[in-house]
Design brief:
CATH architecture of the largest domain: 3-Layer(aba) Sandwich
Helix content: 25-40%
InterPro entries: DegT/StrS_aminotransferase, PyrdxlP-dep_Trfase, PyrdxlP-dep_Trfase_major, PyrdxlP-dep_Trfase_small
Number of strands: 14
Structural class: alpha/beta
Modified residues (N6-(pyridoxal phosphate)lysine): 192
Oligomer: single chain
GO molecular function, one term: pyridoxal phosphate binding
Protein name: DegT/DnrJ/EryC1/StrS family aminotransferase
Strand order of the largest sheet: 1-9-8-5-4-2-3
Shape: globular
Bound molecules: pyridoxal-5'-phosphate
Family: Belongs to the DegT/DnrJ/EryC1 family.
Strand content: 15-25%
Largest sheet: 7 strands, mixed
């Protein structure tokens, strides 16, 4: 059996090697390394895939979030509400821009923003909501957009983990994750569902005005060459990454399907385990399983992780510490307001999840988890 990895980028690469190698060599020969035609082509191909008016490529997913916030012309101390249970980048950029991060609890089943807590957190200084489509599934955009509209707030979807997922509104309209809010952001970090071979990111919007602004901000606040109208940043997707992404974008739906198939295998194997909760698939969103995250109810999560490690099965805790308790982002809080986040920190365990999992590997992983769980019951 092939060695089991959390993410197997190498096997995935070898399947498309000659195609990708040729494309990369072409970029090297063209010497159009920055803002070349490959970037432009990727941009418009992603626009059609997502059915969104504008894609603005940038250097990574963290920049994408920062630049999206910069485009809104916020003032120091303006409040941005986001989830306490997410990757740090979401909160980091809020602090970096001297805005006030207001962290709220998540829903226990979907790991995404609790919309009742969202309503309660809104104040006259609230300007933006950042829902995070965590682990591959959309937050409840129907309710979030309604709350945003009622309170005149902007919505930036952090879509670093759910590219290709689809949200269906009550009337039946379906939209791709990242295209429903004021803006959406994503990351092309190698291990993301659409990953390049270095760093990359993008911002999505249907607003012409915001798209213009964003294109200036990523390029030193420059709308006309050497005229700087505002303080911007330098944040670019390079041509080598763009050409890799052009090869991988047509494969994204298939990649997400492969992840779903692995998730189905896990779900079935764990269906009768009273102390294992498998990921809940919300009826409003497809799930692209950036992570397959179990909740372990018998208090033995760390022991299970150790047991699997001894069998050379990697399993990761995403995320072990609440952002509100991190030194850098500390927020005074009442534990009663963060019951779900605090439970999840102790219960979650993500199993290997990628596009190249083989049945033999899945069987070995699930048998090993079941072996541990059964031993605990006796
Ligand atoms: C990966 C990730 C980011 C940051 O993306 P980078 O490209 O690594 O900067 C932001 N938010 C979430 C939820 C992520 O998973």
């Amino acid at each position: 059996m092939k060695k089991i990895q959390m993410v197997d980028l190498q096997t995935q690469y070898f399947k498309i090697k000659s195609d990708v190698d040729n494309a990369v060599l072409n970029v090297l020969e063209s010497a159009a390394f920055i803002n070349g035609p490959e970037v432009k082509s990727f941009q418009s191909e992603l626009e059609s895939y997502l059915d969104v008016k504008h894609v603005i490529p940038c250097a990574n997913g963290t920049d994408a979030l920062q630049i999206a916030l910069m485009a809104l012309g916020l003032e120091e101390g303006d409040e941005v509400i986001t989830a306490d249970f997410t990757f740090a980048a979401t909160v980091e950029v809020i602090h970096l821009l001297k805005l006030k991060a207001v962290l709220i609890d998540v829903d226990y089943d979907t790991f995404t923003m609790d919309t009742e807590k969202l309503k309660a957190a809104i104040t006259p200084r609230t300007k933006v909501i950042i829902p995070v489509h965590l682990f591959g599934q959309c937050a409840n955009m129907q309710d979030i957009l309604k709350i945003a509209e009622a309170n005149k707030l902007e919505v930036i979807e952090d879509n670093a983990q759910a590219i290709g997922a689809e949200f269906t509104f009550a009337g039946g309209r379906a939209h791709k994750a990242g295209t429903m809010g004021t803006m959406g952001t994503t990351s092309f970090f190698p291990s993301k569902n659409l990953g390049c071979y270095g760093d990359g990111g993008a911002i999505f919007t249907n607003s012409d005005e915001l798209a213009h602004k964003l294109r200036g901000i990523v390029n030193h606040g420059m709308y006309e060459r050497y005229y700087h109208d505002e303080v911007g940043v330098n944040s670019r997707l390079d041509s080598v990454q763009a050409t890799v992404l052009r090869k991988k974008l047509p494969l994204l739906d298939g990649y997400n399907e492969a992840r779903r198939k692995a998730a189905d295998y896990y779900d079935e194997a764990f269906a009768d385990q009273p102390d294992l909760l498998t990921p809940v698939r919300a009826d409003y969103s497809t799930h692209v399983f950036h992570q397959y995250t179990l909740r372990i109810l018998n208090g033995k999560r760390n022991e299970l992780q150790k047991f699997l490690a001894e069998k050379e099965i990697p399993a990761m805790i995403y995320y072990p510490v609440a952002l509100r308790k991190q030194k850098a982002y500390f927020q005074d809080s009442d534990p009663a307001d963060f019951k779900n986040t605090d439970l999840l920190l102790d219960q979650v365990l993500s199993l290997p999840m990628h596009t190249e999992l083989e049945e033999e590997q899945l069987k070995y992983i699930t048998d090993s988890v079941l072996e541990f769980m059964t031993a605990q019951q006796h």
